[in-house]
Amino acid sequence: MRISILMNALAGSVLMVLAGCGPEYTYTPPATAAGQACVAQCQATQTDCADTKREQTAYKQSACEEKAEREHYYCLQFAKTDADRSKCQKSACYEYADTSQCETDFRACYQQCGGKVGILKQ
Fold first, then answer.
1. Which of 55, 73, 77, 86 has its Cα between 20 and 30 A from that of 111?
2. Which UniProt keywords apply (predicted)?
3. What is the distance, to the nearest Å, from the Cα of residue 43 to the centroid of all Cα atoms in its chain?
């Protein structure tokens, strides 16, 4: 059980580090009013996408925590000795909202609207 908790913590840490390691982009907006209105729609779609990903992640986190609590409770209930009870560890839950597809879709949409996307730092 303890190894599982350590592995979950390590995975969460790696994801947080990787999230900050991606490329940085520059955006040159489209010249036309129609293109700018199009980009505004792209931004709204990106926001909706990211919000949905965060909501899904919050739901998964909550479900994981409830499951971990339930498993810990049953472990304690069915343990026959103090030694068995001391082995009952609550699992850790580390969900991550991966919004990278939302960002990829936004960049494609931005370009389809006539904007230019460049890579500042890779």
1. 55
2. Signal
3. 19
